[in-house]
Amino acid sequence: EADIYQTPRYLVIGTGKKITLECSQTMGHDKMYWYQQDPGMELHLIHYSYGVNSTEKGDLSSESTVSRIRTEHFPLTLESARPSHTSQYLCASSPRQGANNSPLHFGNGTRLTVT
Amino acid sequence: AQSVTQPDIHITVSEGASLELRCNYSYGATPYLFWYVQSPGQGLQLLLKYFSGDTLVQGIKGFEAEFKRSQSSFNLRKPSVHWSDAAEYFCAVGEGNQFYFGTGTSLTVIP
Q: What is the pLDDT of residues B71-111, one digit of tens each?
């Protein structure tokens, strides 16, 4: 099983608050990703990273930021939460070595509700 | 951009019956293909993957999938479904460092 951890599992927060979703992996993977998942929709890529000090924006990145100071840690920050941010957030990782498309390993997600 | 289509939003099967979940993709070259399963409140777990070679790949939990280039398909199959297989199933295509997911198929298993 993949060792990738997300905290908190559930979060209810008011509009305008700043929040950080945590993601850590113990597999030494270089590549890490944040996805947003809504029912009946495909996963949307928010941000990704190829390694320390590397971050790239995905499709839905405009309202959030990430950092990659350590290989194992890839937190996602929403500066000002809005009800439209209510969703499930999934963190994933994969190794850089080997085939470009090594499978993604996913955490259990953070279910965010913004009131 | 690549795309992945899962035509069936929801499927119901009886326990012990066979299962086939459909997946079609659009991609010019030989794709990297994956099937994931997601139980309620959980992340996605890899069932199987196809990179090259034998077009019939075996995965965990008794699942298999067949890559058919002529049909741009990568359908997931299981000969005999168990109640614990009830979950959401996602097909995905990998290209470079990006992954493209389908919208998922929800599987209900009835006794």
A: 999 999 999 999 999 999 999 998 877 889 999 999 999 99
Contacting A with CB below 8 Å, chain B residues are 4, 9, 32, 34, 36, 41-46, 49, 51, 90, 92, 94-104
What pLDDT, on a 0 to 100 scale, did the predictor assign at position A8?
Answer: 96
pLDDT in tens, A58-84: 987 668 999 999 999 999 999 999 999
Give the C-alpha distances (Å, rounded to integers) separating A50 from A20, A28, A58, A94: 20, 12, 13, 9
Contact list, A41 vs chain B (CB under 8 Å): 103
Query: A65-98 burial, b for 16+ CB within 10 Å, e for fewer?
Result: ebebeebbebbbebeebeeebebbbbbbbbeeee
